[in-house]
Amino acid sequence: VQLQASGGGLVQAGDSLRLSCAASGSVSTLSVGWFRQAPGKEREFVAAVAYRSANKLYGDPVKGRFTISRDDAKNTVSLQMNSLKPEDTAVYLCAATKESYRFTAQSEYYGYWGQGTQVTVSS
Hints:
Strand content: over 45%
Distance between the termini: 37 Å
């Protein structure tokens, strides 16, 4: 499985962006998540969606502002980001779990990673 993230850009605080993660193969039985990494900081969990969207999980900094969704017919996962803040500035990476049906926020369980897309939020 190969993942391709897109949709990043430069926006102002309060704006919205929609990121997409396209998979080369089926990820329908895998959980798919978004992580982000800012310069000088550790990778941070953003959101994850489980098999058949049975469950969704969000990191505390983005709860209420970001929404993750998946379309298994198109092998895509999206991250709608609203009310963006300067502290959301980071490279956003999408990832899929190594094992089917595992649902987690822990990055060590994600075996497939995309290349990342830059999101920059100006104040």
